[in-house]
Amino acid sequence: MSDIAAPRSRWLALAVLCAGMLMIILDGSIVTVALPAIQADLGFTPSALSWTINAYTIAFGGLLLLGGRLGDLAGRRRVFVAGLAVFTIASALCGIATGPGMLIAARFLQGVGGALASAVSLGMIVTLFTDPAERARAIGAFAFTGAAGASIGQVLGGILTDALSWNWNFFINVPIGVAAIVLAPRLLNDDRGSGLRGGIDVLGAVLATSGVMLGVYSIVGAERGGWTSGRTLALGAVSLLLLAGFVVRQATAAEPLLPLRVLRSRSVAGANLVQLLAVGAMFGFQVHIALYMQQVLGYGATASGLALLPAAVVIGGLSLGLSARLNGRFGERNVLLAGLALLVIGRLLLIRTPVDGAYATDLLPPILLVGGFGLALPALTTLGMSGARPGDAGVVSGLFNTTQQIGVALGVAVLSTLAASRADALADGGASEAAALTGGFRLGYEVGAGLLVAAFLVALVVLRRPGVQAGEPAPKTEPTATPATTV
């Protein structure tokens, strides 16, 4: 591409990045709806079926940080295209899978490709859009892709499964992936990266990847084995030791995988912590409200997906239409706090959900308030990337995405385990199945509200004043710094 500075070229490049992200985000939610059909067709046992999700989550979460650093060294466009190619091929393999083993292996490969493509996407956006107003709009569009894609995926997954077959939940990725692979070299800058001659921190990569993968594995397995089981505690302890070794290694390595200086930025560290809490609460909500509609109210897969569609519409309207203007006028921190406040109110409304809830009065209001994510996520993404220098944009992007995936895994596992335990206790006490399930979901909503309140407090305290990254302040002309939004 010869003139990426042209406005039209920049927005076309953003469209390619968003298309790649949409494919990856859709895949995460579209498959969930198809799980019963996959189980019936391929003969999965109930315990093995969860690995169609877990295999992807482990690979994706474990390789994001490494993928981001590879983008800084080898070139973000190369890593992005390579990730899309792996993801697209793996999607085709998933679609033609003839047994559980093949599908799980292909899902792991999908996670590898998704991690490589996702890890560098934000880094390319912040270097592509240097004007603060344009960058705010671009991040709003990218955030909308991630926030609304999950809701759209549930609807699309139900339609494809009912109208065609579960296989098409994977086949649909192939034309999108091919189109993005063809267009990416024409629209995205051929950044060379800083080069691999200095060497990549192999030991750090091994420690980080194995530590995160093992940690995610222990989290997703805790829902079945219990949080206090010997297996869960042992795996968690080993994961923490590996990650502690990784931190020590980064402090001493000549070419660290994650330069510890990036964590001295209040915006980077604070935004990642806020994201960990908020994303955990939001994805736990998505799982619980979908289960409530299907298991308690008797909705079908397609109907429950359509019931959540208003959230995607509101998120889209706020993130695409208002978030950039509000961020420019009031500042990302204040917009983030307003979005988190809306999410807390919505979660508190769900705590009173009855067994015989009505959609219009009991579900629609909190679903609409989920639109607060359309305000919070663009502001949070801008804050999380604002401390990144040009040479660190990839690894900061990878860190931000890694935090997101760990938040998803933790939120779903912790809230689902708590909800299931409460439901079992209520059932043992004589409650009906519907009442027991509803009571469990209410506990999940309560804990989710607590996580969102904690996220609000962290944003209020940690992201409290403008500034630049600690250590070596970036000059005012730094293309990836936004002085009005760094903290």
TrEMBL record:
Transmembrane intervals: 12-36, 48-67, 79-102, 108-129, 141-160, 166-188, 200-220, 232-252, 273-293, 299-322, 334-351, 363-385, 406-423, 443-463
Keywords: Cell membrane, Membrane, Transmembrane, Transmembrane helix, Transport
Principal localisation: membrane
Lipid bilayer topology: Multi-pass membrane protein
Domain Major facilitator superfamily (MFS) profile: 13-467
PROSITE patterns in the record: MFS
Localization of this protein: Cell membrane
SUPFAM superfamilies the record matches: MFS general substrate transporter
Keyword Ion transport assigned: no
Annotated protein name in UniProt: MFS transporter
Organism: Actinomadura vinacea
